[in-house]
Amino acid sequence: MSYLEKEDKAIFDLIQKEWERQSDYLEMIASENFTFPAVMEALGTVLTNKYAEGYPKKRYYGGCEFVDEVEQIAIERAKKLFRCEFANVQPHSGSQANSPVYSALIKPYDKILGMHLNHGGHLTHGAKVSQTGQIYQSFFYGVEIDGRINYDKLEEYADVVKPNILVCGFSAYSRELDFKRLREIADKNKAILFGDIAHVAGLVAAGEYPNPFPYCHVVSTTTHKTLRGPRGGIILTNDEEIAAKINKAVFPGAQGGPLMNVIAAKAVGFAENLKPEWKTYAKQVKANAKILGQVFIKRGYDIVSGGTDNHLVLMSLINKPFSGKDADTALESAGITANKNMVPGDTRSPFVTSGLRIGSPALTSRGMKEKEFEWIANKICDVLDNIEDKNLHAKIKQEIKEFSSNFRIYEKAIF
Ligand code: DSN
């Protein structure tokens, strides 16, 4: 019997249930993944006990000789993975990576120009409900009716706004970014180009999505989405002056003690990303997402931008009699987890939406390939075509449970 089972049965039981849910359902939230068992082992270690405010060899506490080495390994691996000069591996999350980027490089009331949340951007790219839209003056660009960024229009708008930081990156955009053009737009306005590659970092690491370097001055990412590591964030740059400012902005500016167990787990995850097999995984993630888009279109569902170049597909339900929320709820009752999402031109609220965001990373980690994704895409369409038919949803849920049992990823819940 594990310590957890003995000491806290309530939490133990809930963890078991969550493990069963993750095994029985089809996890298609584009920002989720199944991390490696070795990453989970690193998370559950004595490193969680250690305070290590500061940076390797410059700590405010004694006893840091081993965690110093751990953090240095994580830094070196991150630099190698993204082919850059400096890495800060301490941010606790993606939002906590983005916030010090702004505070390091601009002042309150300075201007940031980012992608609008409704067009695929992220809260921390200046949304008014986020601190980033309250501390700074935020302006937004979006996508055209074809679902793509129009760089000429973006340039015209940037010339008017004259942002201090131009933010590129997204939570729901399925095309490649033109980092070179973005840098030209930033340079014209003497702006810093900040790339938030949280969604595509795993593809970037594999060379399966354009690298933001050398174009971006600074780059952030989470480590748990396509990268498949532990939950957390990192910040990267090639500029020594920016790196020094970022380090101060992360600690002591935004955070106290780094989570050393998570930093160790980040290092373990990066080691997986550096293996040759990682490229095979990243290629499969893209191939699987492509199949989803193709089947949806064949079955009469609109896809924003008409397809995908990365790990996600954004289905537009603007022309359908049901919302993103309805779709999300119906799919959940059929054993498929995706999420409602705003789409360009959406007139519904963010709690309802007219879109559905569907991603391939997690199921690809479970070993599913094109054949399985085609089957799943058709099941998704069966549910949506019969959105009110609860009996059908229950029947599909059972089929999915049986199908899923052939692709179990973890033999246990606790590592
Ligand atoms: N919550 C993440 C996502 O789902 O894309 C972004 O932070």
Structure in words:
By secondary structure, the chain is an alpha/beta fold. It folds into 2 domains: 41-273, Aspartate Aminotransferase, domain 2; 279-407, Aspartate Aminotransferase, domain 1, CATH 3.90.1150. The chain has helices at 3-7, 9-24, 37-43, 65-82, 95-105, 131-135, 151-161, 179-188, 201-205, 240-254, 260-273, 277-298, 324-333, 361-365, 370-385, 390-404; strands spanning 26-27, 54-55, 58-59, 86-88, 111-115, 137-141, 165-169, 192-196, 218-222, 233-237, 302-303, 312-316, 336-337, 339-341, 355-359. Strands 4-10-9-8-7-5-6 form a 7-stranded mixed beta sheet, sandwiched between helices. The protein has a 4-stranded antiparallel beta sheet with strand order 11-12-15-14. It binds D-serine. The site of D-serine (DSN) has 4 residues, from loops.
